[in-house]
Predict the 3D structure of the following.
Amino acid sequence: MVRYTDIKASNTLINDSTAPRVAVFVGGTSGIGQLTIKALVATGASSRIYLIGRKSSQDRAHVFINELQSANPKAEVIWIEGEVSLLADAKRVCEVIKSRESHVDLLFLTTGYAPFGPREETTEGIEITLSLGYFSRMVFVLQLLPLLREAEAARVVSVLGGGLMERPTSIDLDDLAMEKPGSFGPIKSQMLSATMNTATLDKLAADNPGVTFIHSYPGWVDTGNARRGFEPNSWKAWLAWLFLEPLIRIFSFSDEESGQRHLFMSTSAYYGGGGVPWTGKAGVNTFGKLVNGLFLVNYRNDCTLNAGVLSALRERATERIWKHTQDVLEPYL
Ligand SMILES: NC(=O)c1ccc[n+]([C@@H]2O[C@H](COP(=O)([O-])OP(=O)(O)OC[C@H]3O[C@@H](n4cnc5c(N)ncnc54)[C@H](OP(=O)(O)O)[C@@H]3O)[C@@H](O)[C@H]2O)c1
């Protein structure tokens, strides 16, 4: 088990030689991404941070960037506007980054929410929460992989449901777009996104041994995320406000703790051996090994294996998920 005191101690060791020099945050306009950027900038390191977000968040993002620059003038924060639920825009943003950078040390992905309303598609015909939680994230990963491979100890952190995954028998592999009647729902969509994140990152980790992949389950953090999936002023939204949100407030990690925990995931050699040195027992990858790979990280920063389900996924689902992913992403790669 990783103790929170050890996490904070590790984060105090972050400096110009251990901090990500170039970091890309997709979803950093609020919530866990934003908290992690704050924690990174507060280390005083001279990182260059790309903050990607939609136009409606631009004014908020500029206020945030001004706060960051006064907290640490050595950090450079660059705003790139992008409607990241759209894969074409995700690709365009990656092209901007690729035109400016020769390597990327950290790609941190947090977009998405659980949909409590009806199924809603983007203009590209993809259910929006599957796009935010999985497909658009994978455009960023696959587009930026060449730059991640150029970094000394690159890392991809996808925050959603590390360790939570469906058994292959519970997934309709013929309906990974969730189009069949009755197939769609808040838990089902989140679990499918989480399962596809794990299956694909597990495959990419095997093909890219120099990059550390992390799929994090953050526990409860009071970011307003639960509110996003409800239709405004619906009875479900009122029920959530009355019962769910107070519960989340009570049982959530504080903003500070969530930021520190995710900064540790983004920088510590506990995962895969690169980054801020770790002297204790290290975390294990999805093969139970102490080497680089994919790490399924729970809300206490421990590595979960879920070995039985994962090996069934590898045997029966990963290739189908990968094929579907390639078919959907093909125009955007
Ligand atoms: N917070 C929790 O307790 C918790 C628990 C388990 C899992 N998770 C999952 O972990 C991830 C990060 O959570 P979080 O609490 O940090 O999330 P969040 O703050 O609610 O949202 C993260 C990002 O998603 C973007 N986003 C939301 N809807 C969008 C849309 N329709 N189009 C474009 N961008 C959109 C937000 O952009 P804007 O700033 O522009 O709105 C924000 O940058 C999410 O996938 C969440 O479902 C969270």
